């Protein structure tokens, strides 16, 4: 689960990391009030930065991060940004913070390294740009240090990171931040805690004092660990969750919306992806990824059918079940029930093999379902049915 | 011969008194697997599976009383990491963790500790393994198999059944079929299972079934290119149509930052001499094309 920058910053603050103050505004008037407090309050910021709060990258490039020097300008800029849509997502809130006087930008992140099966700290002296870009153009600029799987990130490792990033003058601060990122990861079951940029900023008037701070924050949480973080449920952004996704979650269905015309209902994630791939191979386009999980009963099958049919583009449905824990006859009963309640008539091709497949076949035949023996055949039939349906419409 | 499990397997089922644990333990027993014990804390002294299997409170007791060498875990996600560690501490050599939904960071120290104990962990979030005609540990339906000499290793469940069924239908049997699990952090990778197959005299061909996310298929391919050069090899990769940045059901199945794509995996496998199938049903023919005669 991705969370918004402002929420990510709160999780960093909770672990004692240095994060400059910010406010979240949902309207131009709120942004004006926030800017006013920052420009004329105790901090006397010379400018504020206004940042779109959306869960996609590339906000800066899209014009979703801008500066303002006065209350009026802040209101105007916030009005612009709040009207934007970035990569298809409408901006509903902005973050307002004092504009930092940046001396140097770096990158620092703690990630779960699947291959090494450890937590990896990744730092780069090139901050402010995406790490994938640095990895492609200047891979030697990235410093990689693995935390010990049993002992965690040790001080000497964090010091090594600081020296290799040229942060000798900020040794203690770097060690504190590096260890803090790992702590944030562990405390919240995050897969990723990314600070980009981690910045040396000048604070106070004139020459000022230099300080290392986390100017941005990106955190993704492990969905599998939400059961032990009740408070994280509040961080799920309802503005950015499609109703279908929330509905799928309620029924324990793994569902991802795609742009094609052939709805897919499958048991098992690998087989669900394979079914999509075979639809494409047969000349069609999948409308969704949908895994009903193991041991699905009739009710979950009916819920899955509703999710698929909620997309008006769907012109045919392909059901592919390889029964193991899942019983084919249960799925067949669910399909028969779902078709009775079905809001519109969409052709369906069903393939059920494995546990209780014979009983499933009998039920489906009685109910006049179109069936297929192999997965390849099922995909071809579904694509043909969608074509026929598309031409009829 | 086989890898990981076989006639010498003496299995303890952790969580045998739970609904899932009991159901699958019964199927394993019916397949002929020697289930020597079950374990559920607080239920020691009871008997499971129609009074045929003693239940123990702890793994150390189970091992001491039965000489068990293998365990299969059906414990809920919150307790599964502990169940793995308890098995390893009791001296179990091969641990299968079927449990789905274990927080990934829990597995980082667990994998390290299991290795330090000298044990092998398969999973979590895996269907287990079958050595046709000898033993089945986990939840793979026994009916899809045929005894033979192709080693199958896969990251998923039902997709594996699909591929194995296609092989069996074509008359191609398996030496061992191993599901390594769809989570980001797993006990044994493709590479580690391929190394076991390479050392098994009765495994004469390899089928690898991967999916998007991570780079474990690429890592295995690079190793196989030199170490399994003369062995017939076929593969299938799921997720060619998967969009970037979306977790496709399995916690580990996600393309991020342009890495972990099906294209990258297919290219690496082809370069290493694998025939890569467009559909699981093509795997038998690809094995034949690679010279497999078994």
Query: Which overall shape of chain A is indicated by the principal axes computed on the Cα atoms?
Result: elongated
Strand line-up of the largest beta sheet of chain B? 3-4-2-1-5-6-7
Strand fraction band of chain B?
15-25%
Number of helices of chain B: 9
Radius of gyration of chain A: 26 Å
CATH topology value of the largest domain in chain A: D-amino Acid Aminotransferase, Chain A, domain 1
Pair of chains with the largest interface and how many residues each contributes: A-B, 53 and 61 residues
| Amount of helix of chain A | 25-40%
Shape of chain B: globular
Q: CATH superfamily name of the largest domain in chain A?
A: ATP-grasp fold, B domain
At the first level of CATH, the class of the largest domain in chain B is Alpha Beta
What is the correct CATH architecture of the largest domain in chain B?
A: 3-Layer(aba) Sandwich
How is this structure best described in words?
The complex is a heterodimer of chains A (393) and B (294). Chain A is an alpha+beta fold and 393 residues long. Chain A has three domains: 1-20 and 101-241, 2-Layer Sandwich (D-amino Acid Aminotransferase, Chain A, domain 1); 21-99, Dna Ligase, domain 1 (2-Layer Sandwich); 242-388, Rossmann fold (3-Layer(aba) Sandwich). In chain A, 37% of the residues lie in helices and 25% in strands. Chain A contains twelve helices and 18 strands. In chain A, strands 7, 8, 9, 10, 11 and 12 form a six-stranded antiparallel β-sheet that branches. A four-stranded antiparallel β-sheet of chain A has the order 1-6-2-3, covered by helices on one side. In chain A, a hairpin with a 5-residue loop joins strand 10 and strand 11. In chain A, helix 2 (28-40) runs antiparallel to helix 3 (71-82). The mean pLDDT of chain A is 93. Chain B has 294 residues and is of the alpha/beta class. Chain B folds into two domains: 11-122, Rossmann fold; 140-289, 3-Layer(aba) Sandwich (Rossmann fold), CATH 3.40.50.261. Chain B is built from nine helices and 14 strands. Chain B has helices at 19-31, 59-66, 80-89, 104-116, 158-169, 190-198, 216-227, 262-271, 283-289; strands at 11-14, 35-39, 47-48, 53-56, 70-73, 94-97, 120-122, 128-131, 135-138, 147-154, 174-179, 205-211, 233-238, 275-276. In chain B, helix 7 (216-227) links the parallel strand 12 and strand 13. In chain B, helix 3 packs parallel to helix 4 (104-116) and helix 6 runs parallel beside helix 7 (216-227). The interface between A and B is large, with 53 and 61 residues.
């Amino acid at each position: 689960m991705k969370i918004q920058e402002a929420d990510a910053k709160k999780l960093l603050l909770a672990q004692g990391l240095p994060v400059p103050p910010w406010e979240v505004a949902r309207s131009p008037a709120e942004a004006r009030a926030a800017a006013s407090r920052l420009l004329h309050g105790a901090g006397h910021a010379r400018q504020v930065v206004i940042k779109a709060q959306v869960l996609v990258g590339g906000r800066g490039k899209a014009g979703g991060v801008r500066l303002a020097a006065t209350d009026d300008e802040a209101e105007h800029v916030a009005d612009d940004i709040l009207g934007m849509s970035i990569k298809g997502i409408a901006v509903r809130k902005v973050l307002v913070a004092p504009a930092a006087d940046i001396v140097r930008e770096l990158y620092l992140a703690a990630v779960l390294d699947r291959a090494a099966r450890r937590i990896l700290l990744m730092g780069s002296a090139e901050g402010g740009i995406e790490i994938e870009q640095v990895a492609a153009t200047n891979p030697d600029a990235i410093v990689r240090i693995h935390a010990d799987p049993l002992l965690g990130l040790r001080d000497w490792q964090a010091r090594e990171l600081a020296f290799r990033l040229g942060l000798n003058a900020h040794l203690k601060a770097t060690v504190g931040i590096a260890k803090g990122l790992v702590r944030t990861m562990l405390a919240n079951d995050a897969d990723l805690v990314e600070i980009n940029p981690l910045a040396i900023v000048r604070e106070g008037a004139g020459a000022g004092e230099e300080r290392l701070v986390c100017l941005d924050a990106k955190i993704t949480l492990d969905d599998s660990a939400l059961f032990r973080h009740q408070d994280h449920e509040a961080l799920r952004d309802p503005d950015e969750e499609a109703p279908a996704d929330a509905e799928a979650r309620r029924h324990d269905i793994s569902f991802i919306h795609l742009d094609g015309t052939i709805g897919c209902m499958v048991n098992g994630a690998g087989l669900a992806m394979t079914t999509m791939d075979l639809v494409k191979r047969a000349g069609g386009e999948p409308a969704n990824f949908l895994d009903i999980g193991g041991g699905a009963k009739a009710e979950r099958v009916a819920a899955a059918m509703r999710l698929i049919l909620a997309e008006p583009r769907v012109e045919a449905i392909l059901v592919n079940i390889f029964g193991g824990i899942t019983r084919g006859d249960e799925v067949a009963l669910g399909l028969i029930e779902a078709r009775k309640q079905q809001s519109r008539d969409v052709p369906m091709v069903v393939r059920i093999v494995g546990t209780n497949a014979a009983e499933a076949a009998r039920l489906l035949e009685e109910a006049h379902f179109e069936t297929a023996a192999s997965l390849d055949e099922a995909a071809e039939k579904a694509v043909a049915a969608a074509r026929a349906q598309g031409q009829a419409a | 011969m086989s890898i990981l499990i076989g006639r010498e397997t003496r299995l303890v089922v952790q969580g045998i008194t739970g609904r899932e644990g009991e159901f699958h333990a019964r199927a394993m027993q019916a397949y002929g697997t020697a289930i020597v014990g079950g374990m559920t804390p607080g239920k020691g002294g009871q008997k499971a599976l129609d009074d045929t299997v003693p239940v123990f409170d702890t793994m150390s007791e189970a091992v001491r009383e039965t000489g068990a060498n293998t365990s299969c875990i059906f414990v809920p996600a919150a307790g599964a990491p502990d169940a793995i560690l308890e098995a390893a501490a009791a001296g179990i050599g091969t641990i299968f963790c079927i449990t789905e939904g274990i927080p990934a960071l829990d597995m980082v120290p667990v994998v390290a500790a299991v290795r330090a104990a000298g044990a092998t962990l398969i999973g979590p979030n895996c269907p287990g393994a079958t050595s046709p005609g000898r033993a089945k540990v986990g939840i793979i339906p026994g009916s899809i198999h045929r005894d033979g000499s192709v080693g199958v290793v896969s990251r998923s469940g039902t997709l594996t059944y699909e591929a194995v069924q296609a092989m069996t239908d074509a008359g191609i049997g398996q030496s061992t079929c191993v599901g390594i699990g769809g989570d980001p952090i797993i006990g044994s990778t493709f590479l580690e299972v391929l190394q076991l197959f390479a050392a098994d005299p009765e495994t004469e061909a390899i089928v690898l079934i991967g999916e998007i996310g991570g780079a474990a298929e690429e890592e295995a391919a690079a190793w196989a290119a030199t170490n399994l050069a003369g062995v017939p090899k076929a593969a299938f990769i799921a997720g060619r149509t998967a969009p970037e940045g979306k977790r496709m059901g399995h916690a580990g199945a996600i393309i991020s930052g342009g890495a972990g794509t099906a294209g990258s995996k297919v290219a690496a496998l082809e370069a290493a001499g694998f025939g890569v199938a467009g559909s699981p049903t093509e795997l038998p023919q690809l094995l034949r094309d690679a010279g497999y005669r078994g």
